[in-house]
Amino acid sequence: LSLETCTSTGLVSRINEDAVDLGFTHADLTHSSMELIPFHESVAVCILPPNHPLSRHAVITPELLHGQDFISILRRHIVRSRLDRLFAEAGAVPNRVAEVATGLSAVTLVRAGTGVSVICPFPVVREDDPALVVRPFLPRFVYRTSFAVSTARPLTRIARAFMRHVKLSLA
Questions:
Q1: Which has the closest alpha carbon to 31: 151, 157, 131?
Q2: For residues 7 and 25, what is the distance between their CA atoms, to the nearest angstrom?
Q3: What is the per-residue pLDDT across 69-85, written as a single tens digit (0 to 9) for each?
Q4: Residue 43: strand, helix, or coil
Q5: CA pair distance 35, 28, nearest whole angstrom
Q6: Quick check: 115 and 99 in contact, CB under 8 A?
Q7: Which of 126, 52, 44, 36 is nearest to 78 (CA)?
Q8: Are 122 and 42 in contact (CB under 8 A)?
Q9: Could you give the dihedral angle defined by the CA atoms of residues 29, 46, 162 and 2, in that order, rounded to the nearest 10 degrees?
Q10: What burial class does residue 98 get, using C-beta atoms within 10 Å of its C-beta: 0-12 exposed, 13-18 middle, 19+ buried?
Q11: pLDDT in tens, 26-69
């Protein structure tokens, strides 16, 4: 089993080229050679370094993030436009200190004290991580995570076993 990170377009290409057996995606991708099999839903969270002043709040809103050092997901991600719209509607302007391609990169920068971020917690955030404070983010929005598989060829035995394992681990 190998795991790599790529863009949504890259995922479609890798599946078309038979370079991967399956992928994970939060995007609602459509392509004739690929099928999405939803398996998990997550709600966006705000992650903060320990002892950050906002950690005293039970819930984080766009208004609270006004002026805060903020780590954004890249503009090409659909969730970025959703977050930007929420900030605009609230009149909130976070201080963008970094833009990252993945939630894992955002977690790494938050742990280093670079700022705060709003991300999908699955699969990169653990509630018991001592290097992060995790708070619900409102208004609430949901991420749907799906397996992306080829419609042109059957799944391998190992891919089916991995999918079963992931689903069971989330049950």
A1: 151
A2: 9
A3: 999 998 887 788 889 99
A4: strand
A5: 10
A6: no
A7: 44
A8: yes
A9: 80
A10: middle
A11: 888 788 889 999 999 999 999 999 999 999 999 999 999 999 99
Q: What is the spatial distance between Cα 29 and Cα 37, in angstroms, rounded to a whole number?
A: 11
Tell me the C-alpha distance between 105 and 88, whole Å.
24
Question: Residue 109: left (phi > 0), alpha (psi -120 to 50), or beta?
Answer: alpha
pLDDT value of position 2: 63
Say if residue 110's pLDDT is above 90: yes
Say which residue, 60 or 9, is predicted with more confidence. Answer: 60
Close Cβ partners of 52 (under 8 Å, ≥ 6 residues apart) = 116, 133
Entry pTM: 0.86
What are the tokens at 105? Answer: 């990169």
